[in-house]
Design goal:
- Catalyzes the ATP-dependent phosphorylation of N-acetyl-L-glutamate.
- There is one protein chain.
- The protein has helices spanning 3-26, 43-58, 70-79, 95-117, 163-170, 194-204, 235-241, 250-261, 277-283; strands spanning 30-35, 62-67, 86-87, 90-91, 124-128, 135-139, 143-144, 147-148, 155-160, 174-178, 180-182, 189-191, 209-214, 232-234, 266-271, 290-293.
- With 310 residues, the protein is of the alpha/beta class.
- The strands form five sheets. Strands 5-10-2-1-13-15-16-14 form an eight-stranded mixed β-sheet, sandwiched between helices. Strands 3-4 form a two-stranded antiparallel sheet.
- A hairpin with a 2-residue loop joins strand 7 and strand 8.
Length: 310
Amino acid sequence: MSAARKHTALPKAQILIEALPWLTRHNGKTVVIKFGGNAMIDEELKAAFAQDVVFLRQAGLKPVVVHGGGPQISAQLDKQGLVSEFKAGLRVTTPEAMDVVRMVLAGQVQRELVGLLNQHGPLAVGMTGEDAHTITATQHRPTIEGELVDIGRVGEITAIDTGAIQALLDDGRIPVISSIARSADDNHVYNVNADTAAAALAAALNAETLMVLTDVEGLYEDWPNSDDVISRLTAGELEKLLPELSSGMVPKMQGCLHAVRNGVETARVIDGRVQHSILLEIFTDEGIGTMVVPDAQPGTVAQPGTEGEA
């Protein structure tokens, strides 16, 4: 091999070496990834997402994918002449609409994602929160102007059973989970916010990391006056910011807060519009997006290297 050819290959080796500490740190750890936003619609982003998840699996991590499907549900409801109404930022879900939600999530979005992942090997297995009682929910009634409001089959998670997911992970598979739940009492099926479901599963699985794909770069310091992104903040700092956040970011950041307050080491909001954003976040020194970490315990000292990506 000529010196020139050796030289052109060198940057590849340097990139791999930069990833080594992160590969070592994350080896064998569970990472829950909430798949959503533009990454669900754009074909190139979908393909890149599948590559990233398979890469994590082949690099020794245990990825779990949780997804919703708002745009696809809206499109199918329109096609069937069912009106989409939102109250308190949540879709009013009639029994008829719930049938559509279930069909779209489990029969369309999940199938496509499983297919993309399985282009790389017999890895992905699709399931919903109904399967093996993985997610149990009760009816969620939001308070609007001081009144409890019935918005139909929208669920609030009451219990998580990770047995089926853990069995798949132990078998080397990639679980792909649709955010649907069943109740313990009335046997109804409920639509559950996918950000909330991903956070609850991350905590129950004792995951190392929760990653939430969004259509923004992360949490902005002073939007709309500035597009500077907060790269790292503690649970306590995030809690103070929650009342000021836009409605779309609230369930994502509440999910991050729930995760790190319940044993997950880091929760990250990353830009799903950037190809391979998952790999950039997990395996590079800079990282991208916003990382939420637990509040420092009294008497502990921050570990070296935790200021950037961890």
